[in-house]
Structure formats: C-alpha cells, structure tokens
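Students often ask what a holo structure prediction actually looks like on paper. The answer is less mysterious than it sounds. You provide the chain, you provide the ligand, and the output is a string of discrete structure tokens encoding the 3D arrangement of the protein together with adenosine-5'-diphosphate.
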Amino acid sequence: MNAPQKAQEAMMTTPYYEAVGKEKLVFKAAYNQGLSILLKGPTGCGKTRFVEAMAHELNRPLITVSCHDDLTTADLVGRFLLKGGETQWVDGPLTRAVREGAICYLDEVVEARKDTTVVLHPLSDHRRQLPIERLGITLDAAPGFCLVVSYNPGYQSILKDLKDSTRQRMVAIEFDYPAPETEQTILIQESGVTADTAEQLITLAQAIRRLETGGLREVASTRVLIAAARLTTEGLSLREAARYAIAAPLSDDPQVTAGLNKMIEAYLTE
Ligand code: ADP
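The corresponding structure tokens follow.
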C-alpha cells in the first residue's frame, strides 16, 4: 500500500473508543448546538482518543494542536511568511479549522500563552468568530466548526489554571481512568494481551492510584498500562515490562521508584 492510500485507510477506520459514560451523548449535544467543549481529566485517560472517535462519528476533519508554553496567538491563527522573496499569509491550524468547519482540538490548553484567550473567547461563545488582527478581518466559523480543549486539573497551579471566563464558555466533560472491566477491555484490545495479564496490570494500577500521591505527580494512566502490556507481547516478563513502562516513567525519585518496584513484585506474577 502506498503512502496516500495508507493515509486514506487510516481516515476510514473508526478509531477504537470504549465509552465510559454519557460522554458521547453530551459531546454530540454540545456539537449540534455549536457549543465549545472542555475535556477535563488526568493524562492518558482517553481524552484524545475520544475526540478522534467523535470527529470520525460526526464525519468532521480533526485538527489537533498540542499546546506548550511558547504557543502564541500567531501560532494558532497564522502569520506572514517570506516565500520566494514575497511575504505571504499562511493560516494557522485554528484558522484552517474555522474556515473548513473542522473540529479543532487544543490539547492542554492552559499551557498556551495567555494572549491566546483573545482569539479563543470570541470563538468559544455565541459569536463563533475568529478575529485576525494582522489581516484586519473577522471570520465567522464555518458550520461544523467546534472548539474542543483539554485540561488536566492535576497540574493546576495559580499560574496554570484555566480562567473562569474561559471555562464558562464551555461544556465540560469530566474524564477519569475507566472502571476496571472497561479498562481491561481497552488493554486487551490495544495490546492483545490475555485477560489475566490485563487484570494483573489493572490491580497494580489501582493500588498505585490509591496512593495519596506518595511523591508522584501523576498516578498510573491507562496509557502506561497499555505500554507495559505491549512490552510483554515482545517477550519481556510482566514485572520487567511494568518496571520500564510504569515505575520508571512515573518518578525520578529513586525511593519512590523502589517503592513502585516493590508493588510490582507484590501484584504481578514473574
Ligand atoms: P489523554 O488524551 O487523556 O492523555 P489518550 O486519549 O491519548 O489520553 O489515551 C491514552 C491511550 O489509552 C490511548 O491511546 C488508547 O490506547 C487508550 N485509551 C484510554 N481510554 C480509552 C477508551 N475509553 N477507549 C479506547 N482506548 C482508550
């Protein structure tokens, strides 16, 4: 299969997403009403996969931007670039989404520079407009456009909290790690491990999640469980896989990592 064919194939296959509650219903309702959507929850619990699945179900293109602390309004909206000796305007991802009526997913939106709210606010309320100051124009969002942002309240700090004025422009859907039976199905589906291996990893994850942070910034996500499960399919033992994919990524503190390794020995077979 050549590259364009592969890309087309990827677009046609429905992203696998295991529903955990009423999130699809709420997303569709908000989407139909032209409301913006905030996905709240810890890292690796399925927010991105959910947006991919919804974009597919609603048959809309999806434009994803991973926000970082240098991300400016110009990165989102566009800028003049020098092309062959001439300056030419190039749309940023948000502008493209507004013009195309795509779903625009701003992952970890609190990381972006504060000045981005200037463009996000008129887009995320009833106006659905994108002001492009450099061009002196304001674009009306094409039908189908939907702004979706994600936010991890666990990282919350005074500097990196989501502004009330931003939150109140959005319908918020809360995410958490899936219930054990659902997470087991996801693990099996995503890695091909046996039900027993998946169950062991989930029991371990639940024990880690019960720790009152215990020096951890984040507990074991569905994502790290999948990574551990995948390593076992390459021949690593379950304990080894968990050490590399769960204990080591979660902490840099040797004592905390040693504690996690002890839990691995207690909960996982060799
Ligand atoms: P987030 O965006 O919340 O950081 P992701 O959507 O990237 O997390 O989820 C991490 C991985 O976990 C996904 O790649 C997927 O394999 C798996 N996953 C988590 N939740 C689900 C779910 N409900 N259905 C299917 N896969 C899921």
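The chain is about 45% helix and 15% strand.
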